What we know:
- The longest helix is centred in the N-terminal third of the chain and has 39 residues, at 22-60.
- The chain is built from 14 helices and 16 strands.
- It has helices at 2-20, 22-60, 76-80, 89-101, 135-141, 167-172, 232-235, 243-250, 268-281, 298-336, 338-346, 351-387, 408-435, 438-444, and strands at 66-69, 106-121, 124-133, 151-152, 162-166, 175-177, 184-185, 190-191, 198-200, 205-210, 216-227, 238-242, 257-262, 287-290, 390-391, 400-401.
- The protein folds into two domains: 2-58 and 301-444, no CATH class; 105-264, no CATH class.
- Helix 2 packs antiparallel against helix 10 (298-336).
- It is of the alpha+beta class.
- The strands form four sheets. It has a six-stranded mixed barrel with strand order 2-3-12-5-11-10. A two-stranded antiparallel sheet has the order 6-9. Strands 7-8 form a two-stranded antiparallel ribbon.
- 53% of the residues lie in helices and 19% in strands.
Amino acid sequence: MANLRTLRLLATIAARNVRRGWRHSLAAVLTMAVGFVALATFQGYLEQLLDNQLDTNFARNMLGELLVRRPGSGEQDAKVNPRKYWLSQKDQAFLEGWLARHQDDVAVRVRSLIVQGVIHAGGSTAPFMAIGHDVAEGEKARRYWGWNAWAGHPLRADQPSGIVLGLSLGRLVGCRPTSDEPVFDPRTALPKPVERPFACQNSVIQLSAGSENGRVNALDAEVIGLTSGQVREFDLRLLYTPLAFAQQLAETDHVALYSLLLKHPEDAVRLRDELRAEASRAGIQLDVNQWKDTEFAELFRRGSALVGAYRNLVVLVLLLIAGTAVLTTMAKTVRERSREIGTLRSLGFGKGQMQALFGLEAALLATVAGVLGGSLALALRALINGAGITYRAGLLAEDVMLEIGLSPSTYVAGFGFLLLVAVLASWLAARRLVKLRVAEILVEG
């Protein structure tokens, strides 16, 4: 009971001191609030950027939770000799049978085949990388990116020889958008499902690629749309075709990849293990992995690691700046209150109680700063997200929407860090005076 009364008394004194020294209190609160806003905004920006890029990459490239290929498909030799790693008709028959038995687990399966060759348009030529895929299933796999055309329209099942070019590849062969209408809807940051006009200098586009028997096949194609390949180097070669067209061009009935979108993504590990086991019993060699464990996610993993290191460094600097500022403020406050400290000590307050007093003051200031900083961070987030600001990010081919994410854990962690810094700063500032004898404290005052 006595300890409770002492704590109440200390809390009352702490609140009074905060009010009386409002100038110092205001300085400390503003310092911590600004640190909180900077920390929450910076963390929210990076988290949202990574989430958006991961989600966008996942959707635009029609990737599912599980990817099924031949073993070795992700290695260097597969880049040199890709045909060795294509799924045969036997492999596909086994997979189709497995999918028929797992209709309650798999939402969409997308087969794809990558064919490389040369595109010809009049006197212009350029290398291409054609991604042939199931058209209807691919549109479903892209989810909210189902409309992926910057001009024209996406692939359609009733246009078997239609192709969609990357914007940069299109320019190389004389195909350009002819409308200045914005591609993205500012509310969703997604392409508007509108057919924007474009023009090609040559009505006939010819694709040529090598076949399995060493011949060079050539097929005429109709450009029905232009799209963006996200990364500039990729955009220079990107070309989407229906799967049957890509197979005809490569003169094969094989495919390179099965991408499986699951109805319940949390079942990915179970289904992966089941498919591996069934394939092994059937004598079928398959490489079944979650998308995040393949080379498709390598760039994202490296980027995440780099951004994580950068984030940790900036957070450390922010905490050091805020901690130093609070420490300076608290030290000055303590020095100016040495007479009060000596008086309280002469009335019987112990060293621990005095340190608790300054800790309570710091905690009170940190709480006020947390409420103020959180409110300001939310207001700034709403302002930025509603402004529709875009910017060019490194190697990306199109602008990125500037968005600030909302992570409650970041707000809680930010408040916890600032509270710890404030209490530690007050403890360090009061430590020297509290250790002195009462007479020495009064003399200093």
